[in-house]
Amino acid sequence: MALIHLSGVTKDYQLGETIVPALRGIDVSIHKGEFLSIIGPSGSGKTTLLNIIGCIDTASDGTVIIAGNNVTRLSDSERTSLRLYKIGFIFQTFNLIPVLDVIENIEFPLLLMNRESRDAIRRRAMDLAAAVGLHSHIHHRPAELSGGQRQRVAIARALVTNPDIILADEPTANLDSQTGATILELMKHLNTTEKTTFIFSTHDPEVLQYAQRIIKIKDGKVHDS
Amino acid sequence: MIGSILFIGTLIMTIGNAVISGLDTGLALHFRQQLCGDIVVISSDQIKENVFFIPMGEAVESINQLDEVLRVVTQNNNVRVALPVAKGIVFVLNEDGEPYFQMLLGVRFNDYYRAFPDGISVVEGHLPTGNTRGLLLSTKSRDELLTFSNTWPVPKGETVVTANLPAGITPNTVTIKSEIIFMGYSDRDTSLDIISTVNAIISYPAFNQLWGYFSIIDIDSYNECNGYYQPVPSAKISAKDRELLANYTHLDDILFGGTPPSHDAIADIPPPQTERVKSGYNLILVKIDTPDAIESVVHEINHDLSSHNLPARAITWKAALGQVAQMAFLMRAVLFGFVTIVFLVAIIVITNTLSLAAMERVSEIGMMRAIGAQRRFVSLMFVAETSFLSIIFGGLGIGVGVISIGGLQHMTIRTSNRLVELFFGGPVFRPMITATDIGLGLLQLGVVTVVAVIYPIYIARRISPNDAISRD
Asked: Which residue of B has its CA nearest to A99?
């Protein structure tokens, strides 16, 4: 059974009196352990699709099934829990919590889960910080980091809960090629060892080289998969 | 910003609460303990309850069957003191025959001292004791007499204390007297002029500008002046007095050419009839052991008086003080209103500031929600943040308020203005901070925090993960 199944998904945005369709009937199935890239021109609907898969946004129509849950029937609280336990996010613009330092940002999802001791959480976060090369910056606030460093924090935060799915919107866009390669290697390693499903949008041909499957989107429709 | 508002708000509320407490305590301490007691018993015939400062010099009805009424009142277990007082007005005339109204309290001096041991301060002279006749003239009455008749009363046997004379007045420019002639002025026809000897000049430690209208006189002089005679069945009139009385009866005949009455006619004149009249006492000032239970004790006393079919009723000190008490409580209400306004302003400003903070934190909150934070977490985060600020800055405000109150108490701010005295609850501004006030301050702080955070939480809970992402 597919880990992610989208059937006839549409998404319309209302701008004043105009309805702008972002997705026009998406049918996609993604299986556990895939390393998948979504590509397409600007405005094609890549980010909207990622947001719907990530339960950040809801479809206007169609069916979205994530890890066996029909998302369209879930309450806000249930969708939030799904995000916490099953999905990790890496955003194009980092989206870190500015008042928390590096290690606290990485720890944050684990603290929300409240399953492990503070020490265990701290150890896990430290491991991830080291894995993304930020062990010497753990007490820096996001404002004190470069764009690349912030993205590495975001990646560490997405990985910290060992989610089934990691959604990444242009994950290496703001990283230098060497760090980007390191991050991709780490993601690929997790994909291989933990069977974590990675879905990312990108324009970077280097990143595309890692993808097992590529979904092309244009004008809100899947053109090639 | 929120911290400053919490600090200033709690500081003002703490001081405001302390001023209200000081006012309450001051009124209770001064009026109830030093001047009029907790409860006042009046005649059932007395319609208006504001018996102390009744307008237009209207007489207060005397209490019939006083002894029985006193017996019933003192039988109440809560009653500690019951002092009969005759409150009324007499005239003093100046050289031009113009009247000055003097308010008097007729009492047994010793009983009065026992009932209100801290009620008066002696400025000049000595307090009379026992059944001595005499007058305790208030400083305010003396000042009024000076203005009215250029007379400066001093206690009998004392010399003028020049330090007590008003500025610009010397002993040579005023008439020094130790006796005052009072003309009775009661609801009875039979009132007399009496000469009252000044024993002491007194002031009231509290509310001297207000209560100073009352001077204190022995009850016998009061009764005599106002025509409240007691029967003296064994009284005998000498032949000389009978002749004088006859002449007085036929005064017109003597003055306008008539003939004096014959000895036979004189012999026929019956002795003057002393009549059994109501006592001059028209108030019983009652102090009770449990001042918080005034209303219930009033109810009990009224029940007892009614069941004994006695023509008297008990009222609270507030009712007896009428507009004076109303004015004091109006000031209390104004103060309370001020504190309430501060309270509401604090809520509005903090709500506004927190709401703006929530709107400024859309990215942060939206991101937390995206990662998996429930709405409940966002609510708790706002409550925790605001509570933390409340505890730190509100606690600081209460602490500084308590210190400020201590400072204000040591400053001994005095007033002699009647209205300000009511506002202060006495002659000295003594705001009071009690454990209850601190508890009230904490409660107000808690309510401000909880109420102020409701709307910002509503805003924050509505922030969706999409809001955070779409902002970027």
From this structure: B364
Give me the residues of B, 452-471, that contact A with CB < 8 A.
Answer: 464-466, 468-469
3-state helix, strand, coil in chain B (%, to 5): 55, 15, 30
pTM of the predicted model as reported, rounded to 2 decimal places: 0.65
Q: Tell me, yes or no, if B442 comes closer than 8 A to chain A by beta carbon.
A: no
pLDDT for B276: 44
More confident residue, A188 or B123: B123
Q: Which residues contact B254 (CB under 8 A, 6 or more apart)?
A: B247, B260
The pLDDT assigned to B472 comes to 44
- Which of B60, B75, B72 lies closest to B309 in space, CA to CA? B72
DSSP code, position B200: E
* Residue listed under structure tokens 């549409």: A10
Q: Does B381 touch chain A (CB under 8 A)?
A: no
Q: Give per-residue pLDDT as tens, B410-426.
A: 888 877 777 777 777 77
Cβ distance A64 to A70 under 8 Å? yes
Phi, psi of A25 (to 5 degrees): 85, 75
CB pairs under 8 A between A and B: 56
B398 phi and psi angles, rounded to 5 deg: -65, -45
Report, as an integer, the average pLDDT of B325-353. Answer: 82
DSSP B207-239: SHHHHTTEEEEEHHHHHHHHT-----TT----H
| CB < 8 Å to B388, chain A | none
Contact A98 B472 (CB under 8 A): no
Instruction: Give residue-wise pLDDT tens across range B141-160.
Output: 999 999 888 999 999 999 99
Residue A104 near residue A161 (C-beta atoms within 8 A): no
How many CB atoms are located within 10 Å of the residue B64 CB? 16
Q: What mean pLDDT do residues A194-207 have? A: 84
